């Protein structure tokens, strides 16, 4: 099915619940435009991770419809979902690295899956790991790295194949104040090349330093807040 909308993600009246419990999110309506950059905010338990998991096609909604790259995921088979996921970069809060592999091989994995020439793989991975200041740890097993180092490997893996959509759950939560702005610069540069970016964060400093709109979750609903809105709520429904 050809893409028919400017929205890279479209959600209509989406709700999600786990088992027979109450809805975590209700009546979510969202049109995420190509090339946009948003922070995703809300208190702990507001549903940020649940929303991201639907965006990267890990979970289907309990009700409503979601289209990603113009495909309605409720009517998309497993092979097609796998193909769509390859167009999405994800930074998980718990990293999800292959602990027995080196930092280099973790980052190289998406490129090798796509069949890229090994010479080009080595060039790209080496450059990116140097950028995130992990050049001295390229050959170290992921299991031996610190939390902040694992975070940087996870980010490098998510962006190495220049995804069309990047979703990041607290990507600067385990790094120091020197590295965090550098990682944000990487996300900004990727966005300038056309990648749509959504970053879940609790960091007021990040939100204040980078004037991007927020997708804000409160009371199971989604609102959009713009940088000029200092009230914490008051934006319109998305």
Task: Reconstruct the topology from this structure.
Elements: E1 7-17, E2 23-33, E3 37-41, H1 48-55, E4 63-68, E5 71-72, H2 78-85, E6 88-91, H3 103-113, H4 118-131, H5 147-159, E7 165-169, H6 179-192, E8 196-200, H7 204-209, E9 214-218, E10 221-225, E11 236-237
Parallel strand pairs: 3-8, 3-9, 6-7, 7-8
Antiparallel strand pairs: 1-2, 1-4, 4-5, 9-10, 10-11
Structural overview:
This protein is an alpha/beta fold. The chain has one domain: P-loop containing nucleotide triphosphate hydrolases (Rossmann fold, 3-Layer(aba) Sandwich). Helix content is 31%, strand content 26%. The strands form 2 sheets. A 7-stranded mixed sheet has the order 6-7-8-3-9-10-11, sandwiched between helices. The protein has a 4-stranded antiparallel sheet with strand order 2-1-4-5, with helices on one face.
Name the descriptors.
about 240 residues; Rossmann fold; 7-stranded mixed β-sheet; 4-stranded antiparallel β-sheet; about 25% strand
Number of helices: 7
- CATH class descriptor name: Alpha Beta
Q: Domain count, please report it.
A: 1
Which overall shape is indicated by the principal axes computed on the Cα atoms? globular
Class per helix and strand makeup: alpha/beta
Instruction: Give the low-pLDDT segments.
Output: 231-238
Report the strand count. Answer: 11
The CATH topology assignment is: Rossmann fold
Order of helices and strands: EEEHEEHEHHHEHEHEEE
Order of strands across the main sheet: 6-7-8-3-9-10-11
Q: CATH homologous superfamily name?
A: P-loop containing nucleotide triphosphate hydrolases
Under the CATH scheme, which architecture would be assigned?
3-Layer(aba) Sandwich
